[in-house]
Amino acid sequence: MLLRRTQTASFWRDQFRVTSEDLDFIHELILDAESPMTTGQLALRLIQEYQRRETARMESELKKGEVYQPKNPYEVGETLIFPAMDFVVGEVLETRAGQNPEHGAFDVISVGFADTDETREFAANLQTGHRLNGTNGHSAGDEEALLSAEEIHSLYRDEIEESLLFTLEDGDRNEDFVQIDEYWLLADMLAEVHVGHLNIAEALLEMQNRPMATEELLPELDLQAEDVSEAMQVISLDHALSGDDRFDQVGSGRGPLWFLGRLEPPEALTPPPLLQPNLSRYSRSLLSVELLQMEWELDDEWGESAASAPVSSVVPNVSFTLTFPHWLYGTLPLSSRTSGIFPQSAQERSMVTVVDGRWGNRYTAWVVRNGRYVCGLKDWMAAHNLPVSALITLERTGEQDEVVIDFRPRRMRREWSRIAKVDADQRLFGFEMNKVQISCEYDEHVIVTSEDREGLEAFNAGFEGNDAALEQIVEMIVPEITKLNPQGTAHVKTIYSAVNMFWRCPPGPIFYTLISNPRFEDAGDGFFKVR
Description:
Blueprint: H1 9-15, H2 20-33, E1 37-38, H3 39-62, E2 66-67, E3 79-82, E4 88-97, E5 107-113, E6 118-124, H4 131-134, H5 149-170, E7 177-180, E8 183-186, H6 195-208, H7 214-221, H8 230-242, E9 247-250, E10 257-260, H9 266-269, H10 289-298, E11 317-321, H11 324-329, E12 331-333, E13 349-356, E14 362-368, E15 373-375, H12 378-383, E16 391-396, E17 402-407, E18 409-423, E19 428-440, E20 448-449, H13 453-462, H14 469-482, E21 489-491, H15 492-499, H16 507-516, E22 520-524, E23 527-530
Parallel strand pairs: 2-3, 13-17, 18-20
Antiparallel strand pairs: 1-8, 3-4, 4-5, 5-6, 7-8, 9-10, 11-16, 12-15, 13-14, 14-15, 16-17, 18-19, 21-23, 22-23
Helix pairs in contact: 3-5, 14-15
């Protein structure tokens, strides 16, 4: 089998570059398909085209002469083809006896190359083995040993698709191609969508005040593109909407929808300060089994508990404890337990209807996957006067975009809660015990509260960029919390809850900061005290 460049790693990893000829091929490929194609599909077809070109060129070049192999004798005037030299053609100018005891008797031929005006010498009539006699170790005609286009794509996918994407996105002809999600199509295939169409779409979304599918918007726009299929009109409108900052693509159980960013709650667009996690490195192996159990019980959405495997999609309901940051902003955590209850989507944000399990009221909420929270439940929490540490239940329904939310009620009583007092200017805070009305089941270790949202956020901002922030906050909090307990101790859940009033952090780093600080002593059963 003759050596083929497309069968070598060095070609695809080091030499392959998408050329103008390749772009012509891709242009015709998409045009003939009359539909978008993914980067992977384009790459695979381009590999096949390279193989076809290589085979055609080899067949053409091989007609010009005999393939050079060192074992064969050659005569002056004979035309030879050199596959190892990119199929260059040469003519034998002279022959002479070779001199090398290791190889015995052999000839040396002098070959002239007209294209480069160069003359080089090669061995001929060689009796000892040489790699070119078998052409890369394969026998002639061993076509079954060739890698298929699919195998080449699998082996060198990253290099091939990186070169392809670079050329399509930033090359000289990037205006000819349009990317929508993971698909590519030709700019000429799109229907014209001008600013007037987009203004109408904006008005429709504002009037409906709900996300809408592209297929819902399209009939109202009258694109006047009879020569463009309806499917391509949908793609054209998607492309135009995605390029306008007014519109935001959100997810749903029915697929992607379009909405207006200015109608979405601020928390859906930007995570609030006290929901932005601070994930420091720590030695997790030093955490005791007891502390790991506490971490699992808290099920923080940014935690690392190995026991916190995602809840199966067949589980009908889950429960969790409402922590201070989520209570403050009216959000719910997307943790290992809760995330599977909400609809999945490829979009960063999804809209979901949350139904009050007590009164049946319906709330519009937003699933923010990257931020690991669901926002829009502040009114629901306020309606039921839920405290921090309330035990909340989420339940699936038969609808894709609907979740039932509830809590565990009980007779209203006044219970003790830790109230934080903040002086952001002086970087000081303290805690006092006060009674609050509670009419639901709750975790007494987690209950902390404060109405001073601005003060807490200002305090948080004061620690921005401070690598020692967590250690400093734990140093300040633990003595304050222990003062509230006659035994002079503070539970790790309470410390975790209090820290998260000022500095969003999962349990692991907080627990490690506790056990690594000689000022604090483990009193057992999850309690710590100041030495």
